[in-house]
Amino acid sequence: LYPTLFPCQFSDSAGYVGFANLPNQVHRKSVKKGFEFTLMVVGESGLGKSTLINSLFLTDLYPERYIPGAAEKIERTVQIEASTVEIEERGVKLRLTVVDTPGYGDAINSQDCFKTIIQYIDNQFERYLHDESGLNRRHIIDNRVHCCFYFISPFGHGLKPLDVEFMKALHGKVNIVPVIAKADTLTLKERERLKRRVLDEISEHGIRIYQLPDADSDEDEEFKEQTRASIPFAVIGSNQLIEVKGKKIRGRLYPWGVVEVENPEHNDFLKLRTMLVTHMQDLQEVTQDLHYENFRSERLKRTGK
Amino acid sequence: AGPVESKNEAAMSELVPEPRQKPVVPMKPTGINASLLGYIGIDTIIEQMRKKTMKTGFDFNIMVVGQSGLGKSTLVNTLFKSQVSRKSSGWNREEKIPKTVEIKAIGHVIEEGGVKMKLTVIDTPGFGDQINNENCWEPIEKYINEQYEKFLKEEVNIARKKRIPDTRVHCCLYFISPTGHSLRPLDLEFMKHLSKVVNIIPVIAKADTMTLEEKTEFKQRVRKELEVNGIEFYPQKEFDEDLEDKTENDKIRQESMPFAVVGSDKEYQVNGKRVLGRKTPWGIIEVENLSHCEFALLRDFVIRTHLQDLKEVTHNIHYETYRAKRLNDNGGLPPMAVETEENHESNL
């Protein structure tokens, strides 16, 4: 191993070299370039996926939405619809692509409904592999799916057979974050019970969902533990602004009260959003280092090229 | 008339809604239509990346080329404020001058402000020291290409390492002798060949042998000669990314470079401060004093502002050029991996 040397700890003193500035150099280039992130949402119709996405990013990704009736849904197969939006915050540019999967779980026989999804994910890996192996690699676009929110219905008693099959088929291809949708249909007790049920079933079936990395020394260990303990996140989304105590907030107005989206006592929305934005980098890394590398080595072994 | 018609149209469009476009690939961005009502926290991704850089640390490989005695080792030690390079005391009678250029790479881990750098200094003793120095740059070019090859082989492995060890030369400091006249033919030949495969930063060594006027004149002449001979030293014009870069780099290219430097590992007391310098009967030459020499400019340039860019140009330009050539030579296919002890499979 190489001997370690410590020129100096303090800046601008006689021993200061200055490469501690390197993260800033990297940072400057990254801000110039901007970031890309692809989020996939999977779940049955009507679980509030679109509303949740709009709430998460405070935008309307689905301006002219058309909702098909049941009769139409019979013939439909799973579609893949991708929308991209550019979000800028404090000088940081993010190109967010949300991949929607309408039709999932709608058919009477949902046997093959995740084949299209698997194909889509593999296609993005395939394209990246092709670009990476090509001659001109200057402008490779990363369209690989970095994270998949899987929506679990609050109306059941836990995971449905389709949920289990999907997650087992996809956990080696994408980071799965299970989400309990429309959490306002459950009391707090029912919510806890459902969460426990879901976690038990996930472990029973050997499903590997996305694991939060351990907290860094300067991160709030307690906060991280709390976040971890809340998985699967039970969330509510809303496109409507309601006035509560003089403030306009996102929520759902019922005769018996107002459910506030961003109130941590009402649901885990804030936890989900915080988790997502503070782990974007890690989600990309795991996609690259684990899922993509698995795909690549399988692919190369298979075809021998 | 107008309003009535449009109302009907609106009613019509409700009855027969148009199906939404269904692209299979991501559409072009719908523009910055996101009107943010609050703070999401996307800018924290910068902090996440910072943390990652701090955690993983980084490699930096710097090569020094020039005749014996031009102060290469001293300069590198001064740059990194550590004994990262062993000074040669010249060739004594027991040691023979190496018949060919030797390549000696020594690695150190230096840590500063929580950032770990694995610094490798690649020395090239014997360069330009023979009577006949023809082709003495060849072992150097070979070494540089070997590092590209090593990286490429790891990249095409089926089961490849998460972080490919980077031994590629990010920066080559070429030491020009302060003759005051012009570049030597060897200087031109070396830089002509090597500027195509590696980032070359020419420096004028032992600049304390020139007065300010001599220095200015010599620099101008060297710059002219480099230009006339088509030698693109770092930062290369064609890789300026945007106007900001171009403006900054133009100034460096046309005014500051080549940096006229002095190195020292000895400290002296000047005006109550301890400074690195060289003590002579006629005064103390302060290495980090900009009115004495341009060491501080070189240091800031290489380490504080352009370190990351040196690595990126190496990776995105020089390495890619090497890779493309290898692929083309091999008929568009990646190179064969040699059977290593670990029995890595290649994807050929």
From TrEMBL, chain A:
Occurrences of domain Septin-type G (ranges): 33-302
Gene3D superfamilies in UniProt: P-loop containing nucleotide triphosphate hydrolases
Site (Important for dimerization): F155
Residues forming coiled coils: none
Subcellular location: Cell projection, Cilium membrane; Cleavage furrow; Cytoplasm, Cytoskeleton, Spindle; Midbody
InterPro entries: G_SEPTIN_dom (IPR030379), P-loop_NTPase (IPR027417), Septin (IPR016491), Septin2 (IPR008113)
Record key words, sorted: Cell cycle, Cell division, Cell membrane, Cell projection, Cytoplasm, Cytoskeleton, GTP-binding, Membrane, Mitosis, Nucleotide-binding
GO biological process, one term: cell division
First-listed, main subcellular location of the protein, grouped into a coarse class: membrane
Similarity comment: family membership: Belongs to the TRAFAC class TrmE-Era-EngA-EngB-Septin-like GTPase superfamily. Septin GTPase family.
Protein name: SEPT2 protein
Species in which this protein is naturally found: Tachuris rubrigastra
Automatic annotation (TrEMBL), chain B:
Start and end residues of each Septin-type G domain: 56-329
CDD domains: CDC_Septin (cd01850)
Gene Ontology CC, one term: cytoplasm
Region (Disordered): 326-348
Location within or outside the cell: Cytoplasm
Pfam families: Septin
Matching InterPro entries: G_SEPTIN_dom (IPR030379), P-loop_NTPase (IPR027417), Septin (IPR016491), Septin3 (IPR008114)
Alphabetical UniProt keywords: Cytoplasm, GTP-binding, Nucleotide-binding
Broad class of where this protein is predominantly found: cytoplasm
A molecular function (GO) term: GTP binding
Superkingdom as given in the UniProt entry: Eukaryota
Similarity section: Belongs to the TRAFAC class TrmE-Era-EngA-EngB-Septin-like GTPase superfamily. Septin GTPase family.
PANTHER family reported in the protein's UniProt record: SEPTIN (PTHR18884)
Protein name: Neuronal-specific septin-3
Organism: Tachuris rubrigastra
